[in-house]
Amino acid sequence: MELPSGPPPTLIYDPPKRLSRRPAAVVVWFIAIIGSVCGTGAAIFENSMAMFNPLLWIFLAVAVAPAVEEICKPLAIVFLLDKRPHWFRSRKEIVILAALSALVFASLENLLYIFVNNPGGSANYVIYRLTVCTALHMTASTVFGFGLAKMWRHIQDKGGQFNIDVCFKYYAAAAIIHGLYNGSAMLMMWSGVLEF
Fold this sequence. Notes:
Blueprint: H1 25-34, H2 40-50, H3 54-72, H4 75-83, H5 91-117, H6 123-158, H7 164-191
Helix pairs in contact: 1-4, 1-5, 2-3, 2-5, 3-7, 5-6, 6-7
């Protein structure tokens, strides 16, 4: 069998095509913000445990719930970063979406606390829930949002998919902030500093 003569064939690199086109920003924002509803299950579970075992409730409130809620609030953002990172337009957009997701989650959690857990709560209690608790959720999620924005930049620069190692310390910081707040609030309630 004769080998062909002449120069070797030229290999043409064909970059992988994106799986989908970028949708309108409103679609991405809707998906990201509605995804925060997933976290409300963690709040409902934590509150249901309070009735059965107060010590278990303390552990859940200080350690488990913050870790679960901080991953659940931006769950849709994490999913989109893994499956459709090109849908996002900037790092700033991701941070804003993380904060808005937390606002939606906090609003739902506040409804649970104000109308189900403590329907006879004072006006001060309602104000506290709507301000301090909402600010806590938005602050923690914004911290994680910076990590998710770093993850997006990593994907843009190096390709590949979502890698938790890139943003884990931001997630851990968000969960720690949340857990410290929960623990401090409990101590202040038990010591009488916070009275509602």
